[in-house]
Every structure is written in C-alpha cells, then in structure tokens.
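Tokens as discussed.
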C-alpha cells in the first residue's frame, strides 16, 4: 500500500489523496487536466498546479508542452480574476472566491510599493491570488497586465520543470 500525499489546503487543513489515484491522474487527464488545474489554481481556489506539473513531467510528458499548457491555463485564470476586479464585482469576489479584505489590502500595498511589476509574483500564495483582482480594480492596462502575469507564470513553471528534469538526471 502506498502512502497518501497532501494535495491542497481547505480551511487550513490538508486534504490527502491516495498515491495510486495521484499516479493515475496524469495518464487519465493529461494536458487538458493540467490546463484545468492550472486555470483553477490561478483563481483563489485551493488547488496546487505544481503537483500536476511534477506528475506529468515524471510520467515523461513533453516538458515544453507541460510548461506551455500550465502557463496558459494559469494566465487565463488570472485574467478571469482581473476581469472580476475590473468589472467591480467585489461582493462576488469576497462571497464566492473567499478573498478577504486583508488579502485585498495586502495586494493594494504591493501595488503601491512595487507598481505593476508586482504582477510578476501572482503565483505567490495568499497575496498572489488578490493581485490580478487588484490590477483589475485599478484598471491597469490589460496589455501590461498580460505581459507581466504571463512572464511570471511561465518563469515559475519553466523553473519548476528545470528542477524536475535536473533531479531526474535528464540534463
């Protein structure tokens, strides 16, 4: 019997999933599953796309496709958050996505301190979820938002892929 692995936080508790199930996910869902998980993890839902990236790479999926699919999915999830902020539906953000006032205030402080460059760090836990929303609220030009957010997401997944392949001895 294989051990259970932590997958995501849910109300400050870790949800565990049986390793046999975890092993079957990449083979069953592949790139579409990666896209969906990456998209959802870029919103404020407690999903870790990194786990899926690691699994796909260790199952010998094409590393370049994995990085690209994860980056695009994660970017489009951030675009959704940007739109919610831009459209001014804060009551929906706080009600359905559970972004607290403190997260939004923290994101606003980041924006005031680092400007739009803070969007390179939308992948960070806690503050990263609220940064795209704050960019939308502040009506940051979508072109600037897109360049910075996609660059940050891509570099994160490329770095993760590099670390995995170096660990597997593929480099």
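Sequence:
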């Amino acid at each position: 019997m294989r051990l259970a692995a932590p997958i995501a936080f849910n109300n400050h508790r870790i949800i565990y999933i049986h390793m046999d199930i975890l092993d079957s996910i990449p083979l069953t869902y592949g790139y579409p599953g990666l896209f969906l998980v990456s998209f959802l993890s870029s919103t404020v839902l407690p999903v870790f796309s990194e786990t899926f990236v690691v699994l796909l790479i260790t199952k010998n999926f094409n590393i370049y496709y994995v990085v690209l699919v994860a980056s695009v999915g994660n970017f489009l999830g951030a675009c959704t958050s940007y739109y919610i902020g831009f459209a001014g539906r804060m009551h929906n953000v706080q009600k359905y996505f559970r972004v607290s006032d403190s997260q939004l205030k923290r994101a606003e402080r980041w924006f005031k301190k680092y400007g739009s460059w803070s969007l390179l760090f939308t992948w960070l836990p806690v503050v990263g979820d609220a940064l795209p929303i704050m960019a939308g609220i502040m009506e940051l030009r979508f072109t600037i938002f897109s360049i910075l957010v996609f660059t940050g997401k891509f570099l994160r997944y490329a770095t993760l892929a590099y670390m995995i392949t170096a660990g597997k001895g593929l480099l």
